[in-house]
Amino acid sequence: MKLKLLAAVFLLLGLWTVQAATEFRFPMPEFESGYKHPAMSIPPASKTSPWVDLGLLAGALALSAWSVLRLRSRRYVFLIALVSLAYFGFYRKGCVCAVGSMQNILSAFFDPGYAVPLIVSAFFLIPLLFALYFGRVFCAAVCPLGAIQEMFAIFPVQLSSAVEAVLGLFAYAYLGLSVLAVYMGAGFLICRYDPFVGFFRQGASFNMFLAGGVLLLAGVFIARPYCRFLCPYGVLLRWASRFSKWHATITPAECIQCRLCETSCPYGAIVVPTPEDRPVDQRTGARRMGRLFLAAPFIIVIAAGAGYLSHEPLARLHPTVWLAERVAGEEQGRYEEKTIDGDAFRAGKRAATELYAEAHALKERFKYASACFGAFMGLVLCGKLIRLSIVRSNKDYVVDRGACLSCARCFAYCPVEKSHAAK
Amino acid sequence: MASTQKRLIPAWLWAGVAVIALAAALALFTMDRRSPPGASFAFNVSDYARISPKDVLFRETQRIAVNVPHPRAMAAARDGSLFVGGENAVLALDAEGKEQARFAVEGTPECMAVSPDGKLLLAWRNHVEVWDARGTRLSVWPDLGERACLTSIAADDKHVFVADAGNRVVLRYDPDGKLLGRIGEADPARNIPGLNVPSPYLDVAFDAMGSLWVVNPGKHGLENYRPDGDLLSSWYRPGMDLAGFCGCCNPIHIAFLSDGSVVTAEKGLSRIKLYGPDTTLSGVVATPEGLQAPETQALAYDADPPVKEVAVDARGRVLVLHQPLCAIFVFEKTDDMAPK
Amino acid sequence: MEQESKFGRRDFIRVAATAAAAGAAWAAAHPSSGTTVWQLDPAKCLQCGRCSTTCVLNPSAVKCVHSFEICGYCDLCGGYLQPGAKARDSGAENELCPVGALKRTFVEEPFYQYTIDEELCVGCGKCVKGCAVFGNGSLYLQVKHDVCVGCNECSIARNCPANAFQRVPVRNSYLLKTRENGGKGHK
Q1: For labelling alongside A73, which of A185, A231, A367, B280 has CA 20 to 30 A away?
Q2: Is A317 within a domain?
Q3: Run of H or E including A200
Q4: Please, which residues bridge with residue B75 across strands?
Q5: Burial of A152 (0-12, 13-18, 19+ CB in 10 A)
Q6: Residue B21: its chain A contacts at CB < 8 A?
Q7: Could you give the angle at the alpha carbon of B234 between the alpha carbons of B230 and B236, nearest 5°?
Q8: Residues A234 and A96 in one domain
Q9: Does C72 have pLDDT greater than 70?
């Protein structure tokens, strides 16, 4: 399949060559003065070797894991974040990045002809593997998007866990929408709406700068809003990190339940011990769970229905659907001025009916895909509720492995840390 | 995460801040519209493409469908019949446009002419072939090499003139294909400026007196040569206005009426005009609109001119070969024409 | 009971997830496909001007290039002069380019050479259209790879009304209108 498509691409390139060659066979004038034309200015792409990127990614991840798990040093984590921000952010201008690479991987799954270079695959895979073994050390210090926000998280405050949970759903929605967009061929939402890449490449529209600025400013208090409430790759890392073999712990040895770390985490990732004076009612929990499991199918079906109903606006994410509506609107005089897109379409050789038919077919597919997106959101909601209703009895202050960004802030709050270090 | 500490700003306010920040970012992104490029960045020649109806002297009276893909060459014989060359085929049509015969050729002839004795002269990119009207190839003239780019051919009793745009020259042959001379090459001694041919358009035609005219497209005009290559006269008219020839190199095709006026076809602004024997503009034969060329070709995928050949038939009608529509547009002078 | 089995289950999930992620990444990767970059096909380009306004960079990474082999070296250049230019000199009021990036030098009678000052060019395509309509189409737009930052999703590609943008191998990163290499890449 891939080979066939590759062959087709080469064939097309070949055709283009032939066309170009036949079109421009007209000889140049003969210059008596012996004039020779200058060379065309076509500088090659000065790409950094992918191996450098890969090496730095793996190295930074390893260092980050080492700093979090072994050195237990916030300072080192912060330093690595600075270096990552400088290199992956400002030097590499935010591309290639693990967050966006997800879409390339998905594209390759939905369209076998889509070529994903090995480096992009590696950028997608390696942080996930590190999360499976060491927690979200990628978020801690390697991701440039995380790093730039970390620099701004100066006076972090804590949100209530309910707010945290509700806002956290946005990330799932963003993930779902990104997958939907890639599946439908509507483009890469994550790259399009990346709020910080404009700073990295020092070029973006005013709105984009403003959006990035708003998030950074909010991030002075509500630390890392993008990572917590939007980042779709963070969702995957969250899942992976839950099963991490090793993970950052608040205390290097035993928790003495001094409660000092309680306010240290700006990300709401510290799980407070179950109060001993309030014995856990296992039966209430079990009953709640049972009800939830019963309700889950209904929640999912309702969410799927809601997704289905929103297929119209979602379909407008697709350029073809957008163009078809625009062309139809211009035809009917619904718009005052015509767009370049409409003019270009009318100048082309395609019939409007053909465009409408294609848009209609896409919308039909969007119905199904939007319902799937809704069902996914329903599933996420159920998962959240179920997780909330699981009654765990833990005696110590521990980290929520999913939410913890391994930023290493809490280490310094633990008095055990100091005595441990003294040993 | 119940913090027992009383905080200066309550938690719900921070939640509000978070929600507002996310909503603001989302809104900013969804409202992100780039303004279209300003007017100074738009190329616009529509002012020049507009032609007043009172300047139009001709109207389209017939449209002959040409049943051959990519028609490119056309010739009108003295007996009124027409020949059209397209991809792999040459068609013979009667004066009304009915197909009389067709025969296969290899490739697409670039241009063609009918000699006074009824033979067809077909020119390919770098060689000429002589065919009879029934489709038998009589002879193939020598290849003119890689640089050659034949764009027009004209034949009278004694000569065949072949325009080679690639070499910027008009070649004079005898009817049997013997090269007799080269016309149009720069020669200060003979006061010949030389043909300036920036693009593959170089046309030759006979006027009503049988005298040879060669387009000098880079100089935006016509040059009248004696068969031996002496320059008799010339006139140049560069300009975007209606009386001039627009762009870098125009006209691309010419044909003469029996009264000595000349029909000129232009590219860029696809328009066909008529100049009187005194070289002043008489009027317009076909407007860009009439030729179904987008007004400015502002959004055309390729700027290839739609008009591939103009000819004047035995009845004095102007024939225009329109390649994209595979048709010959027939233009006739309107009767109620007021002299300009 | 659950505490005891927990480690085993977690280990299993971890190993399974590792395998799945690695498998997915491996399956998605195109071992034969090297790095690709964005380029625009001049055969599809409509010169709408969006290259100059929708690039994430300002000025845009798309610039005009000039294929000298196709150029007619005309005095009356459709890409250089305003359509109604009265004089054929380089007076600013006669120049088509809104930013003055197209320069001309005299070669010999009657030929002029045209070059592009890339520092000034914004990739609006105005000269490209002038050249396409009246001339040989030797001026056309290309993504300049010394400027382009290589976004994963090209902002211009998304906004291009002609779908003229495509990814090309980094080794043949230009789609040129030349006779010799016929778009096969740069010299």
Answers
A1: A231
A2: yes
A3: helix A197-201
A4: B83
A5: middle
A6: 214-215, 217-218, 222, 225
A7: 145
A8: yes
A9: yes
Residue at A369 is within a domain: yes
Subunits with 3+ C-beta pairs closer than 8 A to B: A, C
Alpha carbon distance B111, B122 (integer Å): 6
The pLDDT value given to residue C90:
59
Q: List the single best residue of B32, B43, B46, B299 to mutate versus C (max C Cβ within 10 A).
A: B43
Q: Which two tokens stand for residue A373?
A: 């997106």
Residue A59's Cβ-side half-sphere holds a number of Cα atoms within 13 Å equal to 11
Which residue in B58, B114, B122 sits closest to B90, CA to CA?
Answer: B122
CB–CB of A27 and B24 under 8 A? no
SS3 C81: strand
- Are B248 and C132 inside 8 Å of each other by CB? no
Q: Check if the beta carbon of residue B43 is closer than 8 Å to that of residue C47.
A: yes
From C143's Cα to the closest Cα of chain B, the distance in A is 18
Q: What is the mean pLDDT of each run of 10 residues along chain B (340 residues)?
A: 56 88 91 81 83 91 93 92 94 92 93 94 95 92 93 95 96 94 93 92 94 95 95 92 89 94 92 94 91 54 79 92 92 66
Q: How far apart are CA C180 and CA C123, in angstroms?
A: 25
B168: chain A residues, CB-CB within 8 Å: 29-30
| Whether B102 contacts B89, CB under 8 Å | yes
Contact B170, B204 (CB under 8 A): yes
Contact residues, chain C, for B249 at CB < 8 Å: 72, 74, 135
Taking CA atoms, what residue in C is nearest to B195? C110
Q: What value, to the nearest 5°, has the Cα angle with vertex C72 and ends C69 and C78?
A: 125
How close does chain B come to C105, measured CA to CA in Å?
16
Do A231 and A324 lie in one domain? The reply is no
CA distance A405 to A248: 9
Nearest CB partner across the interface for A205, out of B3, B34, B300: B34
- Give yes or no: residues A101 and A216 share one domain: yes
Domain that holds residue A192: 52-252
Structure tokens at B42: 């738009």
- What is the nearest CA distance from A341 to chain C, expressed in angstroms? 5
State the fold for domain B54-333: Neuraminidase (2.120.10)
Nearest to B268 by CA among C127, C131, C95: C131
- CA–CA gap between residue A68 and residue A77 (Å, rounded): 7
Residue of C nearest to B194 (CA): C110
Beta-bridge partners for B92:
B83, B101
8-state DSSP, B157: S
Helix (H, G, I), strand (E, B), or coil: what is residue B286? strand
C186 pLDDT more than 50 = no
Chain A residues near residue C120 by CB distance under 8 angstroms? none
